[in-house]
Amino acid sequence: MPHHDHRIEVYHAATGRYLGPADLADQATDEQISAVRRARSARARRLKKDLEASQRERYAVVTQAEPPRRLGALTGAQADAELAQGADADLS
């Protein structure tokens, strides 16, 4: 069954003869599965928060028509810290 990944049906490659079901040999425990799901959820929340922050742009207030000026001054240390944090994240 395509949605039952804990058991597969095995067939002989050359003859196509059915050999029977096979269960996963090293199946994770329920606690491990829960931990993985919590870690994935936390990572997804962090990525969503980072995405929202990256899309938020602030511009200076103007009283006359002029080109927009972005706000958001950073110190050199802040810029280095953010760039280092981004380099550590492996999203593959």
Key features of this structure:
2 helices; 42% helix; 2 strands; two-stranded antiparallel ribbon; 92 residues; 12% strand
Helix percent reads: 40-55%
What strand line-up does the widest sheet have? 1-2
**What do the pLDDT scores average to?**
85
Helix segment count?
Answer: 2
Report on this structure:
The model has no long low-confidence stretch (mean pLDDT about 85). Helix content is about 40%, strand content about 10%. The chain has a two-stranded antiparallel sheet. It contains 2 helices and 2 strands; from the N terminus they run ββαα. By secondary structure, the chain is of the alpha+beta class. The two termini are about 30 Å apart. The chain has helices spanning about 30-55, 75-90; strands at about 5-10, 20-25. β1 and β2 form a beta hairpin. It is elongated, with a radius of gyration of 25 Å.
